[in-house]
User: Which sequence fits this backbone?
């Protein structure tokens, strides 16, 4: 359906993409992951010519869209794009936002555009907001409207550039649910995302971008569980690790807990398991470590690591002041709480290691 040959993109002398070669098939759901700045946005923007590639070929259904004689408008309509920011017209009602493209560009009658628009709003769960204005909607609702607006143009493929990054965490899942529904309907999609759990579940292919190109291309199982190349391994290892430095005894425990909670949700932990980890984390910090510190303090580097292979969570606390006395500092009640929840607690080299 889409064939990309030797795609290169430079900004001035600065080369962002070099010799990308790949093919996207009908029904593919490709998630694009990779470190910030590696060219993910540039890549999908080149595909629908929001950025002009420096060289290379992009064929859509056999037609080279970079050919001078190509009908760029028509080709671009085949590719819908959903951005981080929703770009709805604030002076138009939701249904009018959706009707605009079909009426202006596809030359549909207003009635037809309206009927289809209402159907799409139904599909994204927002039929009751058709006559509201964008400002009356939450971020998650606006993004669902933006998806409906894109679908109203009947694209062959939809490109998403971090569709949930600008959203409040509570609204991420409603947008992902809509994308999941589209995947189930067989929509061809390319999705730049940081939501690894989602990428793993929704896609049939993952592109890990690095070194100015698609560094590793594989199934979600391969990329997330058995990456082959070194930089993919390093990236996947990092996303399985959470770091936090505890700077003083009055550190922000709520922020700390909520970051851990988000991290563990991404690792597919259920609520019960998350609460268990949070409980152990807190017990270790206050009733083991701070207690053994007495009146003194030195920063504690906290690392949480999850190994999918062993299905094991490891908590590491590293500090100059941590030594074996930490193991006997806690009162019986704390110790019995911890002992019930963990498989081991060890202390070595200024590091307290807890395995759950
Ligand atoms: P990602 O989406 O993976 O975070 P981008 O595709 O946005 O990365 O950017 C890739 C690189 O290209 C970055 O180093 C960025 O600074 C650079 N870049 C992006 N857009 C432009 C531009 N319009 N002009 C110059 N440099 C750009
Ligand atoms: Mg980007």
Assistant:
């Amino acid at each position: 359906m889409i064939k990309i040959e030797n795609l290169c993109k430079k900004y001035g002398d600065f080369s962002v993409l070099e010799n990308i070669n790949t093919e996207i098939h009908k029904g593919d759901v490709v998630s694009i992951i990779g470190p910030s700045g590696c060219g993910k946005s540039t890549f999908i923007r080149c595909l629908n010519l929001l950025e002009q590639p420096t060289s290379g070929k992009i064929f859509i259904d056999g037609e080279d869209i970079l050919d001078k004689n190509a009908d760029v408008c028509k080709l671009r309509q085949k590719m819908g794009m959903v951005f981080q920011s929703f770009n709805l017209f604030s002076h138009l009602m939701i249904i009018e936002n959706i009707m605009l493209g079909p009426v202006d560009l596809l030359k549909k009658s207003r009635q037809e555009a309206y009927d289809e628009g209402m159907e799409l709003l139904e599909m994204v769960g927002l039929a009751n907001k058709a006559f509201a204005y964008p400002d009356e909607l939450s971020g998650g609702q606006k993004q669902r409207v933006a998806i409906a607006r894109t679908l109203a143009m009947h694209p062959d493929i939809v490109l998403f550039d971090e569709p949930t990054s600008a959203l409040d965490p509570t609204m991420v899942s409603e947008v992902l649910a809509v994308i999941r529904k589209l995947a189930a309907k067989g929509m061809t999609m390319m999705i730049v995302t940081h939501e690894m759990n989602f990428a793993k579940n929704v896609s049939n292919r993952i592109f890990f971008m690095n070194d100015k190109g698609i560094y590793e291309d594989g199934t979600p199982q391969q990329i997330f569980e058995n990456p082959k190349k070194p930089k993919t391994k390093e990236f996947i290892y990092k996303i399985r690790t959470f770091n936090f430095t505890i700077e003083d005894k009055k550190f922000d425990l709520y922020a700390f807990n909520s970051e851990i909670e988000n991290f563990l949700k991404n690792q597919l932990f259920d609520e019960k398991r998350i609460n268990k980890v949070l409980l152990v984390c807190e017990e270790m910090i206050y009733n083991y470590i701070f207690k053994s510190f007495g009146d003194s303090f030195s920063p504690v580097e906290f690392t949480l690591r999850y190994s999918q292979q062993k299905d094991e969570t490891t908590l590491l606390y590293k500090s100059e002041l941590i030594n074996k006395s930490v193991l006997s500092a806690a009162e019986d009640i704390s110790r019995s709480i911890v002992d019930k929840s963990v498989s081991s607690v060890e202390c070595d080299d200024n590091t307290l290691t807890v395995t759950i």
